[in-house]
Design brief:
Oligomer: single chain
Bound molecules: ligand C2E, magnesium ion
CATH superfamily of the largest domain: EAL domain
Number of strands: 22
Number of domains: 3
Distance between the termini: 121 Å
CATH architecture of the largest domain: Alpha-Beta Barrel
Largest sheet: 8 strands, mixed, barrel
CATH class of the largest domain: Alpha Beta
Length: about 600
């Protein structure tokens, strides 16, 4: 008893002593405070007035089994709080009695709930996260199975989110993601016109899987048309421009759609198919939705076969480099070549790069293949030097993955050093989108290349994003006007205006301007008139295998004398042997405007 009294005074839990039938004999001051009464007021009351039956038993006779229980406690004013109750059976004064230690576990519950929330919801947007998404999807699939009402799964990926994030900052990126979350919830709130058959049911779940990837689970969507309407509604809602800080943003998204149970009956399969459909939307031009289809899975299978064939292509020596000459309009001479990869696929003959570069990039194979291309092209350049060809420059295409790999500059330097080629004869062609990312690593790589003396060109200029500020920020040497602006020259006035603007802008930023895809003499003349520095295209030559290139050059050189052995010093373009005059259609030379003499 002594002990009990001490406990009564000092414990920070509430203590109750009651009889087996639940009548309270004693309550500690802490217990009284918990229940919001005076300690004396507890006496002779029934324990069930304060604590809901333990052990989930009915509320008739209070069963007070020994052990630890969680239950709901009730204050005198009727309010409730969660409690943990430890019941000990004891014998006091010759009677069977119970001692109850009562703890208010409100804080513990809150922490548990917070943890639960953290584990299931995305902290930025408050939407369900990947874990909860999968849980909800499994439940929705089970309901759809029972009700025999199809269910729709959509994957939504923002277009160019990375560009926005990198160029406008993460704060804008975060706000944009929240905006998208609210827009999705908003435009799907009253979908009963489309899909909802039992208003009030929670039939739509919007989740964020991470990054800029959102999902929509829509239950009870009867047909594919209904699903398409839903997707349209989302795209329309997102299309409204929005003002974030001082930026006006135009957002679009690509959506992939699959239907359960038609497209797959298994959760992972359904997710995979929806993802594929989303990628198809991306590939087909973004801002659209696509359904998963069986043809799509055939496409993916073909892609996988392509990848597995490519995996062995390098070791089997199936790649070859072709070289396309570049012609300097001012000097009328071949100034350099661009290396273009070709794949001799055993099954398909010669495959052009547009058909396999994407697969190389996706599979990561672009790194070894790109490294091979760089080394091979540089080695070949040095072999042409040795064979007495004029000092040409060499352009090599780099994909974004290659550009981002660590030690890129190092491996370029090694390849140049091994072959004894001066760095300024090498030009690396990058795409615009890569440079939109104003990341520190981009700046560092470009600065290192510039320090080494390696030149950098922007390929397909004008087709990427329209932010031009990167031209000023980065050390760029050359702009290559994309073929699409050249093909309709000189008649298309818009293309003519674009070409004129690119040449003027390039020159004012001290860059060289090269036009790609020049096929006609009229195009060449027009570009010459603009002051464009170099042209490249079928008019001069198609890309040629290395051996043929040498013959092509030599033919035009009229048997140029071999260079003195060991002489690797570069010849500036204006000192190139005058005999290196092109044998392009006569008209090119007869045209006065080109000022090219034979
Ligand atoms: P690109 O770098 O813009 O190369 C120019 C493309 O235009 C080449 O296509 C070339 O054959 C083609 N072309 C040149 N002149 C004309 C013309 O007068 N008319 C027409 N219609 N086309 C012309 P190709 O060789 O099929 O290469 C396509 C793209 O593949 C290249 O575009 C480049 O982005 C990429 N690529 C090629 N080789 C490599 C490589 O080694 N590494 C990487 N990462 N990409 C490469
Ligand atoms: Mg190129
Ligand atoms: Mg190009």
């Amino acid at each position: 008893m002594e002990q009990l009294l001490r406990l009564f005074r000092h414990s920070d839990s509430g203590l109750l002593v009651c009889r087996r039938d639940g009548r309270l004999l004693l309550g500690s001051p802490v217990a009284a405070r918990m229940f919001g009464v005076e300690a004396l007021a507890l006496r002779h009351t029934q324990v069930t007035r304060w604590l809901e039956p333990l052990n989930g038993a009915g509320d008739a006779a209070p069963t007070l089994p020994a052990g630890q229980w969680e239950t709901t406690a009730r204050r005198d004013d009727g309010s409730a709080f969660p409690a943990e109750v430890t019941v000990t059976e004891t014998r006091l004064d010759g009677h069977d009695q119970r001692i109850l230690i009562v703890r208010d576990i409100t804080d513990r519950r809150l922490t548990q709930e917070r943890l639960q929330h953290l584990a299931n919801f995305d902290s930025l947007t408050g939407l369900p996260n990947r874990t909860l998404f999968r849980d909800r999807l499994a439940k929705a699939m089970a309901r759809a199975r029972r009700s025999r009402m199809p269910m729709v799964l959509m994957f939504l990926d923002l277009d160019n989110f990375k560009v926005i994030n990198d160029s406008l900052g993460h704060e804008v990126g975060d706000q944009l993601l929240c905006h998208v979350a609210r827009t999705l919830e908003g435009c799907l709130r009253d979908v009963d016109s489309v899909a909802l058959r039992n208003p009030g049911d929670d039939v739509i779940t919007v989740s964020r899987l991470g990054g800029d990837e959102f999902t929509v689970i829509a239950e009870q969507v009867a047909t594919a048309e209904d699903a398409a309407l839903l997707a349209r509604r989302i795209l329309d809602a997102l299309a409204t421009p929005l003002q974030l800080m001082e930026h006006e943003l135009h957002v679009s998204a690509s959506i992939g759609i699959s239907m359960f149970p038609n497209d797959d009956t298994d959760l992972d399969g359904l997710v995979r198919h929806t993802d594929m459909a989303m990628y198809r939307s991306k590939a087909m031009g973004r801002g659209i939705y696509s359904f998963y289809s069986h043809e799509l899975s055939a496409e993916v299978a073909a892609r996988l076969t392509l990848e597995s064939n490519l995996r062995h292509a390098l070791e089997r020596g199936e790649f070859e480099l072709y070289y396309q000459p570049k012609f300097h309009l001012g000097t009328g001479q071949v100034s350099g070549v661009e290396a273009l990869i070709r794949w001799h696929s055993p099954g398909h003959g010669m495959v052009p790069p547009d058909r396999f570069i994407g697969a190389l990039e996706d599979s990561g194979l672009i790194l070894p293949v790109g490294a091979w291309a760089l080394r091979t092209a540089i080695a070949e350049l040095s072999s042409w030097d040795a064979a007495g060809a004029p000092r040409l420059t060499l352009a090599v295409n780099l994909s974004a993955r290659q550009f981002r790999q660590p030690f890129l500059a190092r491996s370029v330097a090694d390849a140049l050093h091994e072959a004894g080629i001066a760095p300024h004869r090498l030009e690396l062609e990058l795409t615009e989108s890569l440079l939109l990312e104003d990341s520190e690593s981009n700046r560092n790589v470009l600065a290192t290349l510039a320090e080494m003396g390696v030149r950098v060109a922007i390929d397909d200029f004008g087709t990427g994003h329209s932010s031009l500020s990167y031209l000023k920020r980065f050390d760029i040497d050359t702009l290559k006007i994309d073929r699409s602006f050249v093909s309709a020259l000189p008649t298309d006035t818009e293309d003519a205006a674009i070409a004129t603007a690119i040449v003027a802008m390039g020159h004012s930023l001290h860059m060289k301007v090269v036009a790609e895809g020049v096929e006609t003499i009229e195009q060449a003349e027009f570009l010459y008139g603009l002051g464009c520095d170099e042209i490249q295209g079928y008019l001069i030559s198609r890309p040629l295998p290395g051996t043929q290139l040498l013959a092509w050059l030599q033919e035009r050189l009229g048997r140029a004398p071999p260079a003195p052995p060991g002489n690797t010093t570069p010849t500036p373009a204006d000192q190139l042997p005058s005999s290196l005059v092109l044998d392009v259609p006569d008209t090119l030379y007869c045209t006065e405007t080109l000022g090219v003499t034979r």
